[in-house]
From TrEMBL:
A GO biological process held by the record: methylation
Keyword S-adenosyl-L-methionine: yes
Protein name, entry field: Class I SAM-dependent methyltransferase
Membrane-spanning intervals of the chain: 12-32, 38-58, 70-98
Keywords, comma-separated and alphabetical: Membrane, Methyltransferase, S-adenosyl-L-methionine, Transferase, Transmembrane, Transmembrane helix
Keyword field contains Cell inner membrane: no
GO molecular function annotations of the record: protein-lysine N-methyltransferase activity
Length: 255
């Protein structure tokens, strides 16, 4: 069920958005006043923008915005694109989804409500330092750093493009308490943090929990978005009231 909601549902929503946008465009075109004629490129771009807008209403993750926007153009003009464009697209994907194959951790993003719930937990527990292991595009780092100015927030990331974009984002946000480090999460010393957050996949969870047990101080928290540590009962599960009904599994380190 979780696999369906996370991996298939967004793409079904993309199809729905594109279908609705196409239907709206086909309905609108004959109604255009005489003399209003647009080239097919503009019509397809409008259709993509409409689909992206519908996607926002349906709460599709923001990462689908550019996909929705350019999908109609790409489908129709795929053979008109020069060969190097595919190479560039492949390289960008490689640099962004760097850890998908090796670590079996893809890129998907924590939403605003979940980041707010995490910030509330950090405040409630009086955390002074927080790490996002595999910080992606820096959403959590920037949001928590803004919500909790007295918490030192660190993002740990190895996907080169995600690292570069999140560094830029932190610089633009001027959040003095936020940092992004180019480092594998396996090399990060977790003893430095009061709260460690992760949104990874089922694969690394057992190994990560063992690392947390070895390194984290008693009383500190490991918080996993969606993915449980097998056979370990969390101290608490926070249910976030968002579209995907996110669950934050909170594991408290014991002495
Ligand atoms: C599902 S995304 C979560 C992104 C971000 N934490 C968020 O919630 O928005 C997981 C991220 O972990 C990164 N990642 C996976 N394995 C890693 C590793 N060994 N060291 C550092 N980052 C890693 C991936 O590149 C990806 O950006």
């Amino acid at each position: 069920m979780l696999m369906f909601r996370r991996h298939l549902l967004p793409w079904l929503k993309v199809l729905l958005c594109q279908g609705l946008a196409l239907a709206i465009v086909l309905a609108l075109l004959p109604m255009l006043p005489e003399g209003w004629r647009f080239g097919p490129g503009w019509v397809l771009l409008f259709e993509g923008a409409l689909a992206a807008l519908i996607g926002l209403v349906l709460r599709l993750p923001r990462i689908f915005l550019p996909i929705q926007l350019f999908l109609p153009l790409l489908v129709l003009y795929s053979d008109a694109l020069p060969g190097w464009a595919y190479l560039v697209a492949f390289l960008l994907c490689l640099l962004l989804y760097w850890n998908s194959a090796t670590e079996q951790v893809p890129l998907y993003l924590t939403n605003g409500r979940t980041a707010a719930a995490l910030a509330a937990l950090a405040r409630e527990r009086g955390a002074r330092s927080l790490a996002d292991l595999g910080s992606g595009l820096g959403d959590v780092v920037v949001r928590v750093a803004r919500a909790c100015p007295d918490v030192a927030v660190a993002g740990i990331e190895t996907a080169p493009l995600a690292f570069a974009l999140s560094r830029l984002r932190v610089a633009l946000a001027r959040a003095g308490n936020a940092r992004i480090h180019y480092r594998s999460l396996w090399d990060e010393d977790l003893a430095a943090y009061d709260l460690v957050y992760c949104f990874l996949s089922p694969v690394p969870m057992p190994r990560l929990y063992e690392k947390a047990l070895r390194e984290m101080r008693p009383g500190t928290l490991l918080v996993s978005n969606s993915f449980i540590v097998p056979d370990v009962a969390p101290e608490r599960v926070i249910e976030v009231e968002d579209g995907r009904r996110t669950r934050l599994h909170v594991y408290r380190m014991r002495g």
